[in-house]
Amino acid sequence: MDWNVPKFPLDTLSDEGLDWLTDHGAWLTRAVSRSVSDWIDLLTTALIAVPPWIFIGLAAFATYRIGGRRIGLLTLFGLLFLWNLRLWQATVETLVLVSLSTLTALVIGIPVGIWFALSRRAWRIFSPLLDMMQTLPSFVYLIPALPFFGLGAVSACFATIVFSVPPVIRLTALGIRNVPAELVEASDAFGGSTTQKLFKVQLPLALPTIMAGVNQTMMLALSMVVIAAMIGAGGLGRAVWQSIQRLEAGAGFEAGLGIVILAVILDRSTQALAARARPHGSA
Asked: Which has the minimum average pLDDT: 70-84, 88-102, 264-278?
């Protein structure tokens, strides 16, 4: 049986909406693109200028202080191995993209999560949007980035921020909402203002949950930066993408292993920070 109901023109409406936003917001996107591109170039150039053995030593010491000997040694030998594989520049490029994207996602996500925790109406309205953002395929986020910012690292950052921000919003709101009601009531009983209650009671107790959101955001940012190599992002993702195009299995395995090493280092480090943020005596 033929389907005679007219098709809803979602594709046409989407194209027209993107065209309108591109035409009327080009001045803003160009300014943002230049600024972000300058920051990416500056940070990448600065980090690559540092001798790798110094960078690796500092990173190993920092992770040792954060999470102990095991994480410090993992960082030391993992980064030394990436240097030995001649993947150091790609590793630095990936770290810059992940760091900038994660930091921006946290700057956006934590205040929004606090708002959602304090406003039930806002949570009810926007919670379905977060659900949709977390269920959309990651490739979809590359589509709107291209008309606004074109090919390159800026589009990769934009797509990565949008893709990775939902976990920190959700877990920030969840952490604040799960603060025991008795402690909130005690704060009210002692005359604490809303701001004092938030910064002295709710946020400190919610910090382990927020740190779990930071961990998830960073891992999603790393995965998206790799996928964004298809639109011109650099780093280890580009090495993987080039190896697929050239059917170079060995080079692709090396770059993929580099991503795994980097992911494990970042994951263990943020988990250690979350454990340190957990109140003493909690499970």
From this structure: 264-278
